[in-house]
């Protein structure tokens, strides 16, 4: 993700084309998690579905090497991400079910995804200082191979199907005012991240930062995220869901303003990247447990799929696409200001509507 927009720029695509291509990564999250979540809930074979997604996604990614042009690459990325986006939501459910009553340990497991990100970004960034950006797809091949191999190291599930859910209960959950506020909050959060995931690397390059520096700054954000995952269980005991969410959204709004206006001051940029602990780490860890609390055991997979589809999918795609118009018409800084405005709206919605999940005795009823 940190280098893909630079790769697309190197291929000669316009800013609006780059935004459209980057949006496809999020766009398939609208449909894919629901499809795979439903299959996982129905079959109980989530580990096998993860393996299938890893292998098939890697196969479709190989279409990048054909250099098919804008529309061809659009199709390649749509096909590839449909399978690739199936992996993480399924793994979230596998992890939480394996943990059972020890759900506070989730952050300590999830941090290893962050460690992998840091290693990959650092190594690839260092290599790209010596090889052209057009080599990026070749550098990704070992990563995809690693994903496929690691999926086969996870033991298969028993495949026991869940008991039938209470009729009509999913609709009652989704239409709950607190759940609507929760999804709106996360939708706007991902809209605000559109400029970050699409144009942050280009924004830094425009301000004179090299490939390795860009990679290190991306990694810094993820290091802060790891620190947050390690202490999230303590924050959850000390503060309410609403307090954590509003605090994290406010820090995210400050982050986008700093990136937009003070990019040239390295110390400020380092501080802004440390705020990734709030803008992703805190809100994602909170959201995963929030979904389990509201959707219960009968609808956990579908709840996770809705979270991924409506927020990372629809919100991320819209944010990426809108940021493309702002960059094309104004500047990369304008796109980050757009993200700050989205956060201001999210803060108001969260303040007025977000409430904690029901007690355990209620949540099992769906």
UniProtKB/TrEMBL annotation:
The chain crosses the membrane at residues 12-37, 49-66, 72-91, 111-131, 137-156, 168-189, 209-232, 265-283, 304-322, 334-354. Keywords: Cell inner membrane, Cell membrane, Membrane, Transmembrane, Transmembrane helix, Transport. The keyword Transport applies. The keyword ATP-binding does not apply. Residues 178-366 form the Major facilitator superfamily (MFS) profile domain. It comes from the Bacteria. It is a multi-pass membrane protein. It holds the Pfam family MFS_1_like. GO terms for cellular component: plasma membrane. GO terms for molecular function: lactose binding; lactose:proton symporter activity. Coiled coil: none annotated. It is found in: Cell inner membrane. NCBIfam families: mfs. This is MFS transporter. It comes from Marinobacter similis. The lineage of its organism: Bacteria, Pseudomonadati, Pseudomonadota, Gammaproteobacteria, Pseudomonadales.
